[in-house]
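2024-03-11 09:14:02 INFO receiving multi-entity request
2024-03-11 09:14:02 INFO entity count = two
2024-03-11 09:14:03 INFO echoing inputs for audit
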Amino acid sequence: MIWLTLREHRAQLIAMSVTAALLAIGLAVMGSYAAALRSALGVDTCVPLPNTNSNCVDLSVEWTRRIGPAPFLIAALFLAPALAASFVGGPLFGAAFERGTHRLALTQAVSRSRWGATQIGVVLAITLMSALVIAQFGWAAAALGGVPGPKDAFNTFDVGGPPVVAYALFGIAVGGLVGALSRRALTGMFVGLLLFAGARAVAAFELRPNYQPPLVAYERTDWFANGPPIYPPGAWVLHARDVDGQGRPIDFKELDRLMQGFGPSAMAGGPTNPGDYLTNLGVRKQVIYQPAERYAEFQWIEFGLFTGLAAGCALLTIVLIRRRDA
Amino acid sequence: MNTVLETSGLTKRYGRTDALRGCDLLLAGGKVTGLVGPNGAGKTTLLQIAVGLHRPTAGRIRVLGLDPWREGVALLSRVGFVAQDRPLHPGFTVAETLEIGRRLNPRWDHAYALARVKHFGLPLDRPVRSLSTGQRAQVALTLALGKRPEVLLLDEPVANLDPVARLELLEELMGVVAEDGPSVILSSNVLADVERVCEHVVILIDGRVRISGDADELVRSHVLVSGPRRSGKDPADGEVIEVRHADRQTTLLLRGHAAPSEDGTEVRPATLEEIVVGYLRSEREEVPQ
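2024-03-11 09:21:47 INFO inference complete, emitting structure
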C-alpha cells in the first residue's frame, strides 16, 4: 500500500521535495550572503552624519541593489505551503476519484481505512520532511528582509519555525479533504487553496493577535517629540493610536478639532506646548502590542492550531472514505 | 448447489433515484452469468454493491456467503472485479499495474499474471496510457484474474472494444472459466455476446429482477408467433410477453409453445436478443405515463 501511494503520487512528491530542496539551498546561500554583506557594509551599525542620515540610507540602498531579486525567496517561502496544498493536496484523492482508480484500489484485498490512511499518511510524512527542511530558514528570510537578529522577529512569523511545518501539513490535508469530497482534482486544488488561504488569514489577522491578551502602554501624544518607543524592542505592535481621557480612540479630525482650542487656551495662560495642552485634556497615545518574548510561544500555538486542523481534515477524509459509496 | 451471489430485497437509493428496488436473486457458481437490461436498470449498482464499493440502502446481499460492505477485505481476496471503463493508472507500466495486485492480495499468483500478459504480447515496461483499449482491457482482466478469484465480476467488459478484441476477450473468458476457473458474472448491453458466452441470464429492469434463468432454457421456452393482424385473441397456451402490430401483421413474444396454423401463423424460436428486448418493451409499455 505504501508502495502504491508512493508510485501513484510520485510526480507530485518528487516535485515537492525538489522544490523544497532548491528553496532551502537558495535561502541558505542568499541568506548568508545578504547577512554577510549587510555587516560588511555596516548597514545596521551606521552612525548618521550630523543633520542627515543620507549616508546610512545610501548603505541600505547599496545593500538592496547588491542582493538583487533574492528577497523574492521570502515570497517563495511564504507560498510554498500554499503550493503544496494545491498541487499535492488537491489531487491526492481528487484525481483517483475522478479517474475511477479508487475502484481499482478498493477492490483489492485492502480495507477502505487502510487505503485512505496510507494515502494521506505517506503524503503527509513526505510533506513533513520537506517542511522540516524549509522551516529551518526563517533566519535567511529575516536576513533577506533586512530584519537583523531577533529584533522584529514577528515580521518573519509566517516563514520560519514550527508554523511552516503545520501550514504545509494543513495544506495537504485540506486539499485532500476537498478532493475526496468533490471527487475532482481541480476542485480540490482550487477550493483547497481557498480554504487554506482563508484559514491562514483568519489565524493571522483574527486569532494570532490574541493568543495571549495583548499588553498596553501609554505615552504622551507629541507630534514633534521623537524619543525612543515606550514598548520593548521587537514587540509586535497591533495598534498605535491616540485615545481621549475615557480611553476611546480618536482620529485626526477629532484631534484637529481639539487643537483648535489650543490657541485661545495658550492666550489665556494655558500650556504653550501642544503636547502639554493635549495631555491636560487627557489625550494620550496608546500602544497595544505583543512583546517579543512571546514569539516562541505564539509560534507553537499556531503550530498546534494548524496541526490540529490538519489532523481533523485527515480524519474526516478517512471517515468519508470509510462511510461513503465509492 | 454452491451459491456465489444471493440478494433479497436489495434496494439502493441515490438521492431520490432508486437504482435497485427490492432485487431478489440467487446465482449458482461454476457458470457464466450475464446481467442484461437497459441503461439505468441497476446492473452497475448491483455489481458495485457486490464488491462492497457501494452500501445497500436496504435488503441483504451475500457474495460467497460474505457481506461485501462489512467483510470486504475477506471477500475481495476471493473476488476479482473489473469496473466499468476499466480504470487503471495511466502512468503505471504494465509491470507496475500487476505489482498493485501482487502487493495488495494475499492469494496473488504472479507467475500466472505474468504468463497471461506475455501470452497477449503486452509489453511490461510500457505505460498503460500508451496501450490500445483492447490491451488495457486485458491488463485490467489480468489484474482481476491474478488473484485467482472464486468469482469474477465484470462490468461491461467488452464495451468500447472493436469486434476482434471483443471476440478475443470473450473467448479468453470462456477459456478461463472452462479450466476450473472462477464463476463469472458480467453485465453487458451487447446481447449477442451474452448469448454467446452466458449460461445463465438475468434480466434487470427498473431495479428489479424480471427474469433469472438458464440461457438455453430461456430460449427454448420462448417463441415468436407472427400472423395476420388481429387483436387481443389468445393465440396459444402460454404467457404473452409482448404484442407488436405492424400494418398487416401481428407478432407475439410468447412464453410457452405454439403450433403453426392454417391461417398463416408462423412460429419460430426467439433469439435471446428478441426475448430480452421483448421483456424490456413490455415493461416500458406497462409503465403508466
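2024-03-11 09:21:48 INFO post-check: The interface with chain B takes residues 1, 3-4, 7-8, 11, 99-101, 103-112, 325-326 of chain A (CB under 8 Å).
2024-03-11 09:21:48 INFO post-check: The first strand of chain A starts at residue 215 and ends at 220.
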